[in-house]
Design brief:
Blueprint (H helix, E strand, L loop, with lengths): L4 H21 L2 H33 L14 H10 L6
InterPro entries: DUF5327
Organism: Alkalihalobacterium chitinilyticum
Pfam family, one: DUF5327
């Protein structure tokens, strides 16, 4: 999610004004709800900054791709397992 910081700041200011009016009315629940929203907006900005830092750190590191050695069992080993029986055979 790429939200401009200016939009988040505008939302924080809006919630701060809402919190002030709720506090003036003595509505504690409204104050708490506005505070939770402000906290969420702040965390959004902080997460955005930490994600940007992680992306630059990851892009600076060389990429090492693991080699895939896939072996398939031969048909002779599959047939020999049939002769041995299974724990589920009754």
């Amino acid at each position: 999610m790429n939200i401009p910081v200016q939009n988040i700041i505008a939302k924080v200011e809006q919630q701060l004004n809402e919190m002030k009016s709720e506090a003036a009315e003595g509505n504690e629940r409204g104050v708490q709800e506005a505070a939770k929203l402000i906290k969420a907006y702040c965390e959004l900005v902080l997460d955005k900054e930490s994600t940007a830092t992680k992306k630059t750190t990851v892009s600076e590191q060389p990429r090492i791709l693991p080699s895939a050695n896939v072996t398939t069992p031969s048909t002779s080993s599959l047939n020999s397992n049939k002769d041995e029986g299974s724990l589920l055979d009754f």
